[in-house]
Amino acid sequence: MTELTILSSVTNIGEYAFDNCRSLETVYCYKGSTADDSSIYPDGVTIVYLDEDGNTTTESTTETTTESTTETTTESDSVAAPSFKVVGVFGGRSVTFTSETEGAVIYYSSSTSNITTDDICIANGETVTYEDYYGTIYTRAYYNGIWSDVSKFVLKIPVVNTPTVTASGSTVTIKSTTPSSFICYTTDGSEPVVETDGTVTNGTWLKVNGARTNSGTITATPGDTVRAVAVRNCFTTSESAAAYVNVSPAAFKVVGTFGGRNVTFTSDTSGAKIYYSSTTSSLTTSDKCVSNGETVLFEDFYGTIYARAYYNGKWSNISRLILKIPTINDPTITYENGKATIRTTTPNCYIYYTTDGTTPSITNGKKLCSNSYGQVTVSSGTTIKAIAVKSCFTNSTVTTYKVS
């Protein structure tokens, strides 16, 4: 939707109603109606005002942030009422006051709408910074003894961004992207509460080197729910965010293939024990147990290993490791001086070969005397086929070589 027309029969539209309509470019509405409040629309929308007959009168482009709203009363025919442009949220908001009447000066007040020359005066197009202020600003343009109508502008109380809470093992990282904010957290899942004077009635300040901060880590116990809010003076406290602290599941590191495989069991939960089994996934404390980071040798074994970390009476989710049947490296055949050399790089294998063109196996062909290596005397024109086998391994494929 790029255009929108608000009929005169519409009596109320909530703030930010169309704020997420990012394709919206133009809104047609009646001057002075609820629909001409720029806070209803995303920034950059052009509001085209209509008269009683529905004809176009004037245009105004919304340039405020979502932290503020602009409302202008009926415009004087002689001096254009001021409009506003707001930049920034954190560290103060810069408001630029402008009137389309060239040479006009602008008077403004944050306490009264009865603007006179006794109020603060700025040049047309001048910018004023409001540091930690919220409320209504009233303003009027003045030129050659004539006043414009009163415009009013609402600087809303900005809201602190909701912090992120992430758990990795027992380490919980909490962070807010709002500058100069502070984090208050709990570990029992309850809502942290900070009073307007900064007093914590429920929770603990996040600190680094003894100082309050908006980014840091804490150590929690598996089973804890860490909940956090971010606060800042003259801001609305953020919504809370939470993370449940699980026992980190077991992870595996496998080293080796031939002669057994070494499996190292680890968990990000410091101090956790790891129980494992190669026969069942219903792990209990009756199964085999290793320390966090311990290595176990699985010799001539293939299949699924189930593992589960255990800490402080709580279990992690189940992890699975599949040790596949290793495959023997294919043998190579070379020929020199009337002899063929057959070998495989897999240690302790048996090599079976044939010289009559048939497929070798443990029941067909001849076996080399030495494991993984051997030589045979053959004549030119002979076709040699060889295969390597080993217990608990997948046989190699057949290698074929014709002596020329």
Q: Decide which structural class fits the backbone.
A: mainly beta
- The unreliable regions are 63-69, 72-76
Record field, number of beta strands? 39
Overall pLDDT = 88
Percent range for β-strand residues:
35-45%
Largest sheet: 6 strands, antiparallel
- Total of helices: 0
| Helix content estimate | under 10%
| Cα separation of the termini | 78 Å
Indicate the radius of gyration in whole angstroms. Answer: 39 Å
Q: Which outline best applies?
A: elongated
Outline:
The protein is mainly β and 404 residues long. The protein has strands spanning 3-5, 26-30, 46-50, 56-61, 68-72, 83-87, 93-98, 105-109, 120-123, 127-130, 135-143, 146-147, 151-155, 164-168, 171-175, 182-186, 193-194, 200-202, 204-205, 207-208, 211-212, 215-219, 225-231, 241-244, 251-255, 261-266, 273-277, 288-291, 295-298, 303-311, 314-315, 319-323, 332-336, 339-343, 350-354, 366-367, 373-377, 383-389, 399-402. A hairpin with a 5-residue loop joins strand 25 (251-255) and strand 26.
